What does this fold into?
Amino acid sequence: MSEFRKLSHTFYASPQVTPGEISEAAAMGIALVVNNRPDGEAPDQPPGAEIEAAARAAGMDYLAIPVGSAGFSEPLVEQLQQALAGAAGPVLGFCRSGTRSTLLWSLAQARSGEDPEEIAEAAAEVGYDVAPVRPAMDMLAARARG
It folds into this structure.
């Protein structure tokens, strides 16, 4: 059973998924799988190409936006923001624990002008803490609102 955590009606975060869990995501109506984990981060990690093949075989789109040790950058945030805007349905983001996916989603939402407090509450409801990126969320949201 997967650990897909619903952050909004259009985004789920998850710890590492396996090719076998992709069919569960497809059955939920997921349209896009976003891999936020760099390949080779851990020896037991399924290669991104296997997840991509399973997603495409299930009729879903796939996008890799790896967040490595350098952390979050605005181009990564923009990539996810554009992917969310262009997705044909709900999106599933995953990494080792789901935290990087949640933080990147939080930044993308803030960059789109969403309320950082509401974003933080949505993340907290499913067990994630956005405190590490909250100042950046506030800045991005303020900039989006002009």
User: Anything to note?
Assistant: The mean pLDDT is 96. The longest strand covers residues 5-8. The longest helix spans residues 74-86. Helices lie at 22-27, 48-57, 74-86, 99-111, 116-125, 134-145.
